[in-house]
Amino acid sequence: MDYRGDEHISSYxxxxxxxxFVFFVFPFSxxxxxxxxxxxxxxxxxxxVFDVKNYGGKADGKSDxxxxxxxxxxxxxxxxxxxxxxxxxxxxxxGLTDLNGPCKGAMELQVQGTLLAPINPSSYAKDSWITxxxxxxxxxxxxxxxxxxxxxxxxxxxCGRNPKCKRLPVVSLIESxxxxxKGEDTSSLxxxxxxxxxxxxxxxxxxxxxxxxxVNTDGIHIGHSNGINIINSNIxxxxxxxxxGGASEQIRITNVRCGHGHGISVGSLGKTTDEFVSGIFVRNxxxxxxxxxxxxxxxxxxxxxxxxxxxxEDIMMKNVRNPIIIDQMYCPWNQCNPKVTRKEMKxxxxxxxxxxxxxxxxxxxx
Length: 366
Fold this sequence. Notes:
This protein is mainly β.
């Protein structure tokens, strides 16, 4: 007999919930009743699993599984309790997909296989590829790979030189508006991870890679976020390993390896309003073969702001061209207006236990 009450679970989803009735029969007295005060019975209930293959998803590397993933997600999201959406091992093609909340319970997306983004940048109608939005208690896991296939987009990208360019969306992997979320054991290939408006998120054991000459491939970009933790991860891209944009507070980066690219950057700040960052903690990180190590950059002649309570501790650098850069005249490709009166960007930071090898001794304050 199926004890589900009013809750509806599709036959596509594997319902592994249990309803357990426990009866205790023993001699009973007032004294024994007193001894039961505070007694609790804890029953562990398994999550319901929604497999995209049961919704028509094919692991042939060609068929778009967007509808299948959305179907599984919507049913899991509308069900009470903890639910898991699974993309099994295999290679899947997937177009623009929005996985949105709010959901009735905790949600987990378990990607065990490889997800391939569209190769042609014209396939995108917006800046993001896969979006997770408005979800509390979200978890991304499975040990799979998000492959942005960005090689075509990089060849067409001129946004560094042309501020009016149309940005190519292949650079976006995750744009999140979560509270209390976690991503672990996940790989991103030839793409970029973004978190905007996130709160209390943890990235654990992430691997993010792109060629050293790839364009706009920040490993993880953080903006308008609070309580972001990036730990135990390896990031090697053609741009910033991790970049921290404005309106970001309490960002902790620990035990992260950054290879080639531009290191960890705070900024650029001051290009728009509300450009403040506070509570940045970078600890026990290693940089190798990068142009920069730790960098703070602000635009001149634009908006003011504050960058405070920043800490860089126990940093190891190997073959790093510029270990420390504080650049308050950041102006790539002459995009600044020198006639506008410059406003002040205040900074407060600390540097402790910084170790660099013989090939990396430069410090720049611009």
